[in-house]
Amino acid sequence: MCLPAILFFIVFAYLPMPGLYLAFVKYNYTDGIFNSPFVGFDNFRFLVMTGDLWRLTFNTVAYNLAFILLGNVLQIVVAVFLNELRLKWFKKVSQTLMFLPHFISAVLIGLIAYNVLSYDYGLLNSILTSLGVDPVKTYSNGSIWPFIIVLTYLWQSTGYGSIVYFAAIMGLDNEIIEAAEIDGANAFQRIRYIVLPWLKPTFIILLLFSLGGILRGNFGLFFNLVGANNTALYATTDIIETYVFRALMTNFNFSIGSAVSLYQSVFGFVVVLTANWLVKKFSPDNSLF
């Protein structure tokens, strides 16, 4: 049963590893990867000197922290509330409605956002204009996009992510809940002293897995909501994935793109080791290794 997963990682994770050499050369099509001039850490030095690396790192980490922390909290809240529902048909309908946004394409989400936020034809500005208010230039105002992106991500992922926590709650022994009810515990006390501690290991494991990709942004969401070439929004919406996309597709700079990707992988590896060390120090039973 593990063989497909093992083959997947061998083909897509380990076999491409020699391509990391691309980050240390000045690549050209004539010489290829291994015959292009070796430049050492010049590609990384260029990123540091231009300031792009720090901006990309801050934006990517900040967005992912918001996604991880707010996302897990909302997922736990939704799972707990679903567990407290007594009407089975209403519980199933609620799960289905919250689960559906996960299947909506990022392209469609971007199209909906454009039709709502567009300066000339957007629904928002049409309403503001009809009320005598000046229209808003959303696609040139970078300060509001972090809220738009985070809210869109939470809307799309909360229902799907809550399934894991809801499944964990289903594994809780009902006799414990019944004993608490007999002892006079109300719903909030049962949630606080029984359900939430029961979800702690699941939360820690999902958190550690998420931290491994803390520098891997949701390219589909950012690209379709903002686009990769809107310079007015680079300061607050540009992440590593969109930068690499421009480096490869617009500037054809494969070396810079590979350097950023290598930095991204090493940073994520260090974060996972550090987070796991902290978890192992304070809660050894919940660490990954």
TrEMBL record:
Highest taxon above the source species: Bacteria
Keywords annotated in UniProt: Cell membrane, Membrane, Transmembrane, Transmembrane helix, Transport
Family of this protein: Belongs to the binding-protein-dependent transport system permease family.
Membrane-protein topology: Multi-pass membrane protein
Protein name: ABC transporter permease
PROSITE patterns on file: ABC_TM1 (PS50928)
Membrane-spanning residues: 5-24, 61-82, 103-124, 144-172, 193-215, 254-279
Annotated ABC transmembrane type-1 domain residues: 57-275
Predominant subcellular localization, coarse grouping: membrane
Compartment list: Cell membrane
SUPFAM superfamilies, A to Z: MetI-like
CDD domains: TM_PBP2
